[in-house]
Design brief:
49% of the residues lie in helices and 15% in strands. With 261 residues, the chain is α+β, with helices and mostly antiparallel strands.
Length: 261
C-alpha cells in the first residue's frame, strides 16, 4: 500500500521532490516499525494487544505520522527556499512529539500485572494499580516484557474480610485485583489456581471453534489434551483463555477464545 502511494505521489511531484519523498517516507516507516516493535513485543506481547484494545490509537498514530512526517515534509521541500531546513526540523519534532505522546499513553495502559483473583486471571494495566502500598516489594519491580504474575487474596481474618467486601461491593472502593496491598507472590496461588482451573478436554468440546484452536495449539507444542488445564483471563477490551500447567498452576499460554462461551 505504501509503495503504491509513493508511486502516485512521485508521479505528481517535481523531480527534486520525487528524490526527497522516498527517503523521507522510508524514515517515517522505519521509526514507526521500531515503535510498533517495542509496543507489540515488550508492552503488549501476544494476545495482550487485542485484549487491551489499543489498535485504534496505533492506527491513528500511523496515519498522523505519515501525513505530518512524509506528507508535510514533501510539501515544504524546496531546495532553494529560505528556512526550509528549519521547516523540516519543526515537522520532524512534531512527528516525534506525536509518537512520544501516544507512546506515553500506551505505556501507562500497558498490561503490567496478570493477577489471579478467586477464579480467573485479571489483566491489570499500569494506570489501574491503586496507590496502596505494596505488601511485597518484589511485586513492584519494573517488568520490561509482558506482565508480572500476582495472587490477590482477601484477608484471612473474618472481620477484616467482611469489612473489605463491604467497602468494595457497597461503598465502591477498588477491588483487590488492583490493590497491591492485597497481592501475594504467584507461588502462593498454585492451590487456588488448580482448584479453579477446568479441564481442557471439556473446554475443547464446547464448539468446533474451540476444538480447532485447541488442536492447532497442541499441534505446535507436540502436547496432549491432558497436559493443560484452562482458566479465564479477563482483559479490559476482550477476554481470553489461559492454558495452565496442571503440576504448578503456572499459565504457559493464552488462546484467543472467549472463556465464557
Amino acid at each position: 500500500m505504501l509503495n503504491i502511494q509513493s508511486v502516485m505521489i512521485s508521479l505528481s511531484l517535481p523531480a527534486n521532490r520525487r528524490r526527497f519523498v522516498g527517503p523521507r517516507l522510508a524514515l517515517s516507516v522505519v521509526v514507526l516499525a521500531l515503535f510498533c516493535g517495542v509496543v507489540g513485543l515488550a508492552w503488549y506481547p501476544g494476545l495482550h494487544w487485542q485484549m487491551a484494545g489499543v489498535s485504534k490509537q496505533l492506527l491513528i498514530l500511523v496515519g498522523a505520522v505519515l501525513v505530518i512526517g512524509a506528507g508535510l515534509s514533501t510539501l515544504v521541500y524546496r531546495p532553494a527556499k529560505r528556512g526550509m531546513t528549519l521547516d523540516l526540523v519543526i515537522i520532524l519534532l512534531v512527528e516525534l512529539a506525536a509518537i512520544a505522546y501516544v507512546g506515553s499513553l500506551l505505556y501507562e495502559r500497558r498490561p503490567q500485572y496478570l493477577v489471579f483473583v478467586i477464579d480467573r486471571l485479571q489483566v491489570v494495566a499500569a494506570d489501574q494499580v491503586t496507590d496502596h502500598p505494596y505488601r511485597f516489594p518484589e511485586l513492584q519491580r519494573l517488568q520490561l516484557v509482558g506482565p508480572l504474575l500476582a495472587n490477590a487474596r482477601f484477608p484471612d481474618n473474618p472481620a477484616e474480610r467482611a469489612a473489605l467486601k463491604k467497602d468494595i461491593f457497597f461503598d465502591g472502593h477498588p477491588d483487590i485485583d488492583v490493590r497491591p496491598d492485597h497481592w501475594y507472590p504467584w507461588e502462593s496461588a498454585a492451590p487456588s489456581v488448580l482448584a479453579a482451573a477446568g479441564s481442557l478436554a471439556d473446554f475443547r468440546r464446547r464448539s468446533e471453534h474451540h476444538q480447532a484452536v485447541v488442536d492447532a495449539w497442541l499441534g505446535t507444542q507436540n502436547a496432549g489434551i491432558d497436559d493443560y488445564l484452562v482458566l479465564p483471563v479477563a482483559g479490559n477490551n476482550s477476554d481470553a483463555t489461559a492454558l495452565v500447567d496442571p503440576a504448578t498452576g503456572y499459565p504457559v499460554a493464552m488462546l484467543d477464545i472467549d472463556p465464557w462461551q
